[in-house]
Structure formats: C-alpha cells, structure tokens
C-alpha cells in the first residue's frame, strides 16, 4: 500500500514539473510575442529626390559617396524638393561623404533658393519650387513615430533591383484581370522623336507589391540634361482582387525597354525638366587658369593641381550669366587646353579638366602670361568685354623665365593677375631663382590680395574658398580699370607774369584735383608736369612719383616762375623732355593750361605732337586766344574733335 502511495506522489510531482516547465516555456513565447520590434530605418540611394517621397517627415540612411556633383542640390539650409536628399545632407554639414542616418522634414515651397558651395558640394540657385525640405541629425524625436518603409510617388521603391522588375514584367497576368495598354515614347538624345504603343500585362499583385527597380537612364541622354526616367501608368482592372475602382497605380517596365531608349509619355508630359544653372551673376568674370605642366611638378602633383581646378570650377558655378573659365597649360611653351566658351557649366568643365594631360618641360610662366595677354582674352575665344579679365597663374617652386615684363603688359591690358606659388624656394634655393620677388612683379597689385603662397601641394585644396572669394570680388579687381587708366598725363602749365601768384596757386589746385581722379601707379596713370614762360622747366617726370600722395605733394611744391608766354616752345619741350620717356603701350595725354596769346607759333608743334600720338587738350583762362586753343586741339589732316578720338580709344580698350 505504501509503495502505491509513493508511486502516486511521484506521478503527481512529475506532472507538476511538466506543467511548470510548459508554463515557463509558454510564458517565454508570450514575452517574445509582445516584445516590440526594433524600428527599421529605410535606406535610400544618392539620387533619390525629396519630392519623390510622400512622407512629410522621416528618418533615412544615406549610403557613402553622395558628394558626387551629379547628385544635384538646390538651395542652402532650406532645399527645393527637387534636390538629392543625401546631397543636401552633405551640403548642410549633417553628413559627410561616408553616409549615415538623417532626419528629413518637409516644409513649404520657397520663392527662391540661393546656391552656395559648402562641404564639398555646390548647390545651385533656383527661382522657385513648390515644396522644400530641411535635414538634421538622424535622432528620432520622442513621441514621434517614423515610417519603417517610405511611400514613394510611384509604387516602386528606387532602392530595389532592376531584375526583379524584369521578372515581374515577364510573369503572366493574374487570372481575372484585364491588361491595359501602356503608351511609351522613345527618346533619342535630349528630345522625343517618336512614339510606340504596346500592350503590357500587369504584374501579379505579389510581385508588384514587393519588387521595385533601379531606373537606368535612357540611351543617348547625358546625366543631368533631362533626367527622364521610365515610369508608366495603367488603370487597374475592375476584376483585380486588390484594386479600387478608378485607382491609378504606377508601374515601371523592365530594364530592357528602358535601355532601348523608351520613356513613357506620362513622364514626359508631367515631369518638370531639371533646371540648368546659368551661373552665379554675382561673379561675372572671364577667368583663365594658367597651370604648371612642367616636368618638375611630377604626375602626382599634377593630379592634385587638376583636382584643385575641378574644385574651383564647382565652387564658381560656371554659366553664361556668371563666371566663364578656360585653361592654359605651360611647360617649355604654353598651349590653351580650352577657351572661355568651350564649356558653359561646371559639370562639363570638371569632366574636361580630368582629361588634361601633362606637357612636361621647363616652367616658363612668363611666356605663358604673354600668351594669355595676346591670345586668350579675345572675342573669338569667348571674352565678353563687359566681364573683368582674370588670370590665375600656378607655379611649382619658381618660374624658369622672367615674368616682370610679360606681367606688366598683361596688367596694362586690363588683366587681373593672381599668382599661386606652391612649395616656393627655401633660403638655400633662392640662389637658383631666375627673378627674385617674381610673384610681386607679376601680380596686379602688391597688397597681398593677389598672391597666395602654399607650403605644400597637399594643402592646395585649402585655398579654394579664399581664391574664389577674391576672384569674385569684382570691386577689388583694380587692373580691370587699368586699360582705361593706363596713361601718361603731362600738364604743361603757363607760369607767365600775366597769371599772377594767386591765380597760379588756383591752377595748381586744379591740377591736383584732376590728378586725384586717377589711379596713380607705375602700371596705371603716371603724372608729369612742365612749367613755361619764355623758357621751360621740367617740374617732375613720369618716373619720379608712383603714388597719389607723392604726386599731390610734388604739385604743391611747384613754384611760380613769371615771365613771357611761348606756348609753341613749351609743347616742343614737353614732347622731348617728358613724353619721350612715356611707355609705348600707354596713352599719352597733354593738358596745356594758358591765360593768353603765345608769342610764338603753336601750329607746327601741335601737329608734331599729334604725329607722335600725343592727345592734346588746351584749357584757356582769362585772355587766352580761342583760335590758338583750337589749333592745339586739332588732329592732323582731320577736323574732328580730339576728344572724340580719346573716347574712341577708351571704347576700343
């Protein structure tokens, strides 16, 4: 009996343990069932635009490599929804080129979007757009639920694979559904040239709901021109098990049709063409980069130089309404790689820069500057005339020829020369430099604005923003005015007794006030002065003073002479003692101030002056003889006003 009881107790205990174990296991299963799944962050491609995503606020993950300029961005801080989401995130500084999670929030459209260069991405300007978005770090906010799957304006996710869509296209239609015709338009190049009609079966619901396709670009289109992707529409059949009456679905056919160049007519008629930048109007310059292709630079540094050019081209926002850029490469001799009108946007320019090959040879920068002055900035090469001419010269170490004379001619032709010296000569190497202080002799002005010294080629990229800011500061491009300002002006002042001390001081004040209006320097305007009575004397020549303050002080020191009036002899004296030292490429202006009739003949000296290319202006005060003033101002064999000749020269300049 006792044995039976013990057996029963053992059975009960065993059942209890089984039930206990079963309950624990069941409890674990229930715990697993009620545990909330972790939020899945959807991943998008670099080319996905915010306008293609319907969700008003979402967290996404961007892949690496979205800094590429082919992923266009429009705006700064607030971006047009036509922008690449990931590209905008890099531009704003939320991400770098390695990718990561971001939070995107849609906002209202803006009346305008301003382009800028930031974090390696050049955003473009846009007049207006219907919708905008902002990006921030991908940290979800408390109390906000973010979608684990994005809703696109088409039924296909842009992150899926093309072959899945192709398989879906090849599957037969679901029984009970009616296939509707889809209209496709074939695109060749940048324009639609024809249309084809085909009846395509609707993919099965299972395939259509889970598959998506990458949209390959149609054959014949360059990236960024039309950006037309194949998307077609069809109406769900009324017998379809999952279709609502009248509901419009979007479906993309397989990649085979896309690669053949077909684009649905629906897409062509409704999708806005991608706006092309016309360039930054605040930086309207004609720019020549003069790059070092000598053997000493080496292949690696030459590639760094090309990358620098590409970065500058991207930052400048090249376009017909903004800056235009061409490149000259020099070694033993210079050669134009392409001119101002060859590439009219930053994208094409960057592609062309990548194809430049190194010339080799010496580093004859002076010869290159002379080439740019004589050949590059011409109307045939795209020079617009209304835009400042800028030349940025890059040299590795130091030039192997002299740059001073070539640079002087360039400056006096109105070209603003910037000089970038990379890895310049050390103290021990300066003995090998052909021309000491070559940079100061080359630049437009020696005030530091036009010179950049870079310690290493590997630091060159750090100067992109500084250079772009300087070349676009058109108000400070002083040499743009040099062409009109580049003149030697000689004042021939009557110091006869009839003038008097008080009036003579008044004349000197007039000369000083007129001199203030010019940019005084060796490459701009130079001032000289002659005083005359019966005799003549040189008060100061063109080479004596090169600053405005020195000129004004020299004018103040001129003493009143007193005597007779021999104007003809004074003109001859000025031609021999003053204008004989004038530079051949400067305009020569003689301004004669007198108060009476000359005791000698003025006609022949005036004709000699005109034959020598000196433009004469006669200013008569008080008892000055009008007929003599007219003779002094006439041109040889012409009755035209010499001021007309002067203005014509300015216009030609």
Automatic annotation (TrEMBL):
Residues 1-26 form the signal peptide. Residues 286-471, 488-632 form the VWFA domain. It comes from the Eukaryota. Residues 205-216 have a biased composition (Low complexity). Keywords: Glycoprotein, Signal. Residues 148-157 have a biased composition (Polar residues). The keyword Glycoprotein applies. The keyword Glycoprotein applies. Gene3D superfamilies: LCCL-like domain, von Willebrand factor, type A domain. PANTHER family: COLLAGEN ALPHA, VITRIN. This is Vitrin. The lineage of its organism: Eukaryota, Metazoa, Chordata, Craniata, Vertebrata. The gene is VIT.
């Amino acid at each position: 009996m006792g044995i039976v009881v013990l057996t029963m107790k053992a059975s009960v205990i065993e059942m209890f343990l089984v039930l206990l174990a079963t309950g624990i296991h069941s409890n674990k299963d229930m715990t697993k069932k009620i545990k909330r799944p972790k939020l899945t962050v959807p991943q998008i491609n670099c080319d996905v635009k915010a306008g293609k995503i319907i969700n008003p606020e979402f967290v996404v993950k961007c892949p690496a490599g979205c800094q590429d300029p082919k992923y266009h961005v429009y705006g700064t801080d607030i971006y047009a929804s036509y922008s690449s989401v990931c590209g905008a995130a890099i531009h704003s500084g939320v991400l770098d080129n390695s990718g990561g999670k971001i939070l995107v929030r849609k906002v209202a459209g803006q009346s305008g979007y301003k382009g800028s260069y930031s974090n390696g991405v050049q955003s473009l300007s846009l007049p207006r757009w219907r919708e905008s978005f902002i990006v921030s770090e991908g940290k979800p906010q408390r109390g906000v639920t973010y979608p684990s799957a994005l809703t696109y304006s088409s039924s296909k996710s842009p992150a899926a694979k093309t072959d899945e869509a192709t398989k879906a296209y090849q599957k037969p239609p679901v029984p009970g559904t009616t296939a509707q015709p889809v209209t496709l338009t074939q695109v060749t190049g940048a324009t639609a040239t024809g249309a084809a009609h085909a009846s395509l079966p609707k993919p099965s619901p299972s395939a259509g709901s889970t598959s998506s396709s990458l949209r390959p670009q149609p054959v014949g289109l360059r990236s960024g021109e039309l950006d037309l992707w194949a998307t077609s529409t069809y109406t769900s059949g009324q017998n379809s098990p999952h279709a609502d009456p009248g509901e419009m679905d979007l479906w993309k056919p397989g990649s085979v049709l896309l690669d053949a160049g077909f684009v649905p007519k629906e897409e062509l008629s409704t999708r806005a063409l991608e706006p092309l930048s016309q360039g930054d109007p605040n930086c309207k310059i004609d720019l020549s980069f003069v790059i070092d292709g000598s053997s000493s630079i080496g292949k690696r540094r030459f590639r760094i130089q090309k990358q620098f050019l590409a970065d500058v081209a991207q930052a400048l926002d090249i376009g017909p309404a903004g800056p235009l850029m061409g490149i000259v490469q020099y070694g033993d001799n210079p050669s134009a790689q392409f001119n101002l009108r060859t590439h009219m946007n930053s994208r094409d320019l960057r592609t062309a820069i990548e194809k430049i090959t190194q010339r080799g040879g010496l580093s004859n920068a002076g010869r290159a500057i002379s080439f740019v002055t004589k050949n590059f900035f011409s109307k045939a090469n795209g020079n617009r005339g209304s835009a400042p001419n800028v030349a940025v010269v890059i040299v590795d170490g130091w030039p192997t020829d002299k740059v001073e004379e070539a640079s002087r001619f360039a400056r006096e032709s109105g070209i603003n020369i910037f000089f970038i010296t990379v890895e310049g000569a050390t103290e021990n190497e300066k003995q090998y430099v052909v021309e000491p202080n070559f940079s100061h002799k080359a630049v437009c002005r020696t005030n530091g604005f036009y010179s950049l010294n870079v310690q290493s080629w590997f630091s060159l990229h750090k100067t992109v923003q500084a250079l772009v800011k300087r070349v676009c500061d058109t108000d400070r491009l002083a040499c743009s005015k040099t062409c009109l300002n580049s003149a030697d002006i000689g004042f021939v002042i009557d110091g006869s007794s009839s003038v008097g001390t008080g009036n003579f001081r008044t004349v000197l004040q007039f000369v000083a006030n007129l001199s203030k209006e010019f940019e005084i320097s060796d490459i701009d305007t130079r001032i000289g002065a002659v005083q005359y009575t019966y005799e003549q004397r040189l008060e100061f020549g063109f080479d004596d003073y090169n600053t405005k303050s020195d000129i004004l002080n020299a004018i103040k020191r001129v003493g009143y002479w007193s005597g007779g009036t021999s104007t003809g002899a004074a003109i001859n004296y000025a031609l021999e003692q003053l204008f004989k030292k004038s530079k051949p490429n400067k305009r020569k202006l003689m301004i004669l101030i007198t108060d009476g009739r000359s005791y000698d003949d003025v006609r022949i000296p005036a004709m000699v002056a005109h034959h020598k290319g000196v433009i004469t202006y006669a200013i008569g005060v008080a008892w000055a003889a009008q007929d003599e003033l007219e003779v002094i101002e006439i041109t040889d064999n012409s009755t035209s006003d010499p001021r007309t000749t002067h203005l014509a020269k300015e216009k030609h300049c």
